[in-house]
Amino acid sequence: MELRGKLALVTGGTDGIGREIARQLRGAGAEVIVTGRSAEKLQAMASAGFGTIAGDLSTSTGVDAVVNGVAGKPLAILVNNAGVGSEYELDDAATLESAAHCIRTNLDAPVALCTRLLPALRAQPEATIVNVTSGLAIAPRAGGSIYCATKAGLRSYTQAIRYLLKDSNVRVIEALPPVVETNMTAGRTGSKMSAHDCAAEIVAGIRSGKREVNAGMVKLLQMVNSISPALARRIMIKF
Fold first, then answer.
1. Which residue out of 88, 147, 157, 163 is catalytically annotated?
2. What is the pLDDT of residues 134-149, one digit of tens each?
3. How many CB atoms lie within 10 A of CB 75?
4. Predicted confidence (pLDDT) per residue in 68-83, tens digit
5. CATH no. for residue 204?
6. Is the model's pLDDT at 215 over the cut of 90?
7. CA distance 222 to 219
8. CA atoms within 13 A on the CB side of 45
């Protein structure tokens, strides 16, 4: 896909991977609108020349704000990147709201945006949907059960709509990052991919029209999973 002159919408585009995707898309000549919840971060992106839409995607009001914010615009690229973790604990019912918030943000919102923005994408000569999942969509870790479930659900949804849109002008890409250096992973130790490098692989995948972008160490996980899904699950469950 030629990026120059295209209009892209990047959810969660004020920080982390989303911000880097937005920057690199614009560097390639695209016009970029980002969404976010922080007024300060949105202002920083606006000052840098990006279009901005304020909205909490865990709410229907936030989803409406995003849809209305691009209404009538020639949207050609939708990047569903916004995501949150969950403080869910299996033996603590008080954490169910955290789980619900994660599900609404990570799964419900991308489904809603794909559905409601599809007419705008279909109206372009060529268009792309990028759903950002995770290596944890392939095999879960016990410490992030709800987050993993949302990403696995989004992976399944992405594969299904890719088939449904196979004869259309809309290409569907799944991007699967590894552990990336972001605010969400600030408390984790171990090797982390930079947000810049992860975004670079995703943007390259948009250019080349890949079906899946396995970023960083997810390439190795995919290889293990192709040989033995059971082994991949055993490795990742304690990760």
1. 147
2. 999 999 999 999 999 9
3. 21
4. 999 999 999 999 999 9
5. 3.40.50.720
6. yes
7. 5
8. 31
Q: Is residue 1 part of a domain?
A: no
Q: Bridge-partner residues for 77, per DSSP?
A: 8, 128
Exposed/middle/buried for residue 188 (C-beta within 10 Å: 0-12, 13-18, 19+):
exposed
- Write out the H or E segment, with its range, that includes residue 222: helix 218-227
Work out the mean pLDDT of the chain and round it to a whole number: 96
pLDDT band at 128 (very low <50, low <70, confident <90, very high): very high
Q: Is 2 within a domain?
A: no
Give how many domains the chain has, as a whole number. 1
Identify whether 147 is a catalytic site residue: yes
Domain that holds residue 124: 7-236
Residue 52 lies in a domain: yes
- For residue 112, is it within any domain? yes
- Residues 126, 209, 30, 11: what is their CA dihedral angle, to the nearest 10 degrees? 100
